[in-house]
Amino acid sequence: MSSLLTKASYYLAADPSPGSGVPKPTSNAPSELTSKVDTVLGIVAWAGTAAGVLGVLVTGAMMAVSLKRGESSEHMSRLGMVLGGCVLVATAGPLVDFVF
Predict the structure, then answer these.
(1) How would you label 27-48 residue by residue, b for 16+ Cβ within 10 Å and e otherwise?
(2) How many whole angstroms separate alpha carbon 11 and alpha carbon 94?
(3) Which one, 61, 95, 98, 99, has least CB within 10 Å?
(4) Are 60 and 12 in contact (CB under 8 A)?
(5) Predicted TM-score (pTM) of this structure
(6) What is the mean pLDDT of the chain?
């Protein structure tokens, strides 16, 4: 348990910017494969971030239109789901890196 806490504190205290010197675990996979997988995961992460921003913008626009019309809708729950998705996309990489 103490080694897990030591590893967690090491990763949490590290600089979050890419290339910060946090050692990556060694892998037996070929470097050509890992570079292609990293590229695909980067594109997926970018698309997830773009979808989150678009979701917030669409939800805000729907809230504005509903307010202008005098309608009441449950936009806050929709906004909460969008923001929850944004948090999930933002933390997926560090969580997987921490576990593996």
Answers:
(1) eeeeeeeeeeeeeeeeeeeeeb
(2) 9
(3) 99
(4) no
(5) 0.59
(6) 78
